[in-house]
Amino acid sequence: MSQFDQEPPQWAIRFLRFYCKPRALEIIEGDAYELFYKRIESEGIQTARKKFSWDVLRFFRLRYIKGLEDINSLNNIAMLKNYLKISIRSLVKQRFYSFINISGLALGLAACLLIVLYIGHELSYDKYHKDIDKLFYVANNQSGAYTPARLGIQMKQDFPEVAEIARIQGPYAQTFMANGQAFKVSKGFNADSTFHRIFSIQFIEGNPDEALTEPNSIVLTKSLSDRIFNYESALGKIVTVNGETIQVTGVVADPPKNTHFDFDYINSYPNESWVTIGNWTGNNFFTYAKLTPGATAEQVKARIPDLVREHIGPELIKYSGHASFDDFVAAGGKKTFSLIPMSKLHLHYPNLALRSSGSIDNVYVFGAVALFILIIACINFMNLSTARSAMRSKEIGMRKVLGSLRSQLINQFLLESFLVCTLATVLALVIASAVLPYFNQLANREFSYSELFDISTLVRLFVLMLIVGFLAGSYPAFVLSAFKPIKALKGEAQKGSKGKVFLRQGLVAFQFAISIFLLVSTIIVYTQLQFLGKQELGFKPDQVLLVKNAFRLEDKGTSMMNRLRAMPSIEAVTLSNQYPSGSVSDWGYQTVEDNPRSYSFNTFFATDRFIETMGIELLEGRNFNNDMVSDTANIIVNEATVRWLGADDPLGQKLSRGDGEDYTIIGIMKDFNFRSLKQDIKPFVLRLMGKDGRMEADWFAGNYLSLKVSGDYQNTLKAVEDLWYETVPDEPFEYTFLDESFNALYQEEERFGNLFTASSGLAIAIACLGLFALAAFTLERRYKEIAVRKVLGASVQKLTLMIIRQFTWLVLIGALIALPFGFLVMKDWLSAFAYQIDLSNPIIWLIPVLAVSTIAWLTVGYQSVKTAMGNPVKALRSE
Amino acid sequence: MARINIGEFEELVLLVVAILNDNAYGISVMEEIEVQTNRKINISAVHSALDRLEGKGFLNSHVGGATKERGGRRKRYFKINTAGQEALNFIRDQRNKLHDQIPNLGLEYVSI
Asked: N or C: which end of chain A has fewer CB within 10 A?
């Protein structure tokens, strides 16, 4: 057999033909074959085949690998290359405009990226739970979040659609002991043993089904377990919680960030009857239900009225005094429950369940802001590209003459816009990662860099980039490609039709409108916040130090308070069950009249120095005295209560809790704001507790110890802390200043204000960048006109004014659009407040318009003056 | 003359092409180098050196000479041009000039 009948390895040849440039292929293949045949003679077929393969591999060099033009022989690729080259050249040639375009877009994209990250996170809440569409929260339509103990159990018994229920309570802050140190853990819950069938919770140690079946069992998160047990296994070990010993029956993975049920530990319920069987009238539990496959919430809702009638009805009429449940309903009584999808809890019902920090309004506001900023950046891009089109009209004319189709030109300009977008996107990522910490503050979330550079975020950014590239690029693309070649080459297209100028100016006006709107919003939010801050609260929170967990003092309370009173810098001391700016409970009272009226009064319990400590003014009557036993049957009310009573002489009147439990009004306080100023002052009742905070023999309700401090805060605080640890060494000293606590009520609003400041600043900055470039460009085009005007005698001032006047019109048109819109939106926002600023104040509306005009004048004016001052000879001499 | 940008291996290939005169193509150049210098080289290295030299304008090439030994595929023949010869001369002159300037180091150094 001749050596020429032998064949080298097929894969090697196929590989060679796959990668090799067609021009070099024949020569290389020839040489390889020649060597192959020679080697068969001298070295044998095996070696020859091996060496042939090796040679082919060695030829795999950049020099011989096919390029784009070899893969696709169509002209398209070559044209693409040409477009890219021309795009880059024109970007580099007009550095100034490119810079403004790219940086403006990058700012807009960065803002969008962060906001997309935020919105994506918000929408992802609780979606990780298995069967999320079957999970529901049972809400009490009359009293909100809490439901009766019995409800869930009965639902599961009676309703075939309910597969599983679980009740939880919390969050509780409790004291743990570890390594001889006490520390507070704030996110603690009680839950039924079925909780893991509702919530997807990953057990690391322990049996999920048995973890919470016994009383005094606790499930810890991994991080808490590691903290207490030093990274050792915790299962079966004992922890001390608030002085009680509890067995660890499970360790679970920390809940993810996007959950409304965020816990550190979960306690089992005691096996007492009020928990296991429960009653129908106390509302103490959050109830969650899981429906069976195929069941709908509507089916369950339809069954609820029957359940209420059968089980709750008999109990309700015992209290209401109606003869039957029908009478109760006829008298306007209501008792209904509804099922709320768990996936909607975070955004749509943040006040239910566990007070999730979500808000669908925030999602809308953030989304709108992102859109606004992006629109402004896109408008810049469109304006600059079309304005610059004149510069490129000759290129376009030439391309058309040489046979370019319109579609090809459109492609070219779209490609150019995508190129700018790509550069802007890269820059946007840099900007976004630089401002991420500030954004976290603004959004009250904790996004990490890994989330920012997460593949899903990047995909979103890429899609955003394509959309922006298309939106911003399509208008210039269609305008530029429509040039008539002859006119373009003659330079006539430079003039720009009236319609185009009108559109350009319209877009600029729109930019101003958005800027003014955002600025108006910013000013109104801040004025409102300042207004709230200046409101008379009716008491003096700035001097009050509030120590928490004072119920732990128990019997030592009296002596501790006496020692505190002895300190010279402490003017007054009081114990109370609640505090102003904290939560307030309602207690129902009836008037003692022929036709008793009943009302739920906001009620505080406190020792006798409460009014003094808080600095509330006593208008009439007298204060409590702990030494008078009879005072526990007396109350002090506020002016709002007096107004509600409608009595001329309220002192001595009685309010009743029923069954002869009557309270006499002995004093009237001036109205004071014990809640956020979003709400009006409601009727309020102050009742007396024992001087050591005791309500009953074993019930210490004095949760908060308030101290009126004068003078040296630092040393007083230190002295109080020392005294605290001396008295209750195993309870961490927790305190706050009452004014800080009040300010914290407006955190959400302040964030809102910060968001508007940031976004309006950004919007104005981007709009100005665009305006600056556009003005520069317009002036460049009118260089000769201005020179001629100057030669004919126009002064610099007149020329500058002439140019500025045009832009001022645009600001005014923008204001005309923005102000009514801003009025409507901000009126809606303000409606959430009981105390509102006066929107008819013209300053609120004038300042944004003036500010934006000033900025526009400065931007345009700088260039106008520069142009107007130029030597006209230079302008006229050229050509 | 401007600086000649040419590597050691390229110089070798250029010389061999000059020697082979009308019969210089990939394999003949490779074999000639192996015979003359006793060094093993891969055919791909020769090809890219030839291509580079052509790109630098020292070689001309034409295609032809399909034979049975290569399964009927053509060869690319290379031939040195004036620029290539000038380059070779220039390198040689420069080398000689440098060699001439080496001082006499004495026999004992040379013999080591």
From this structure: C
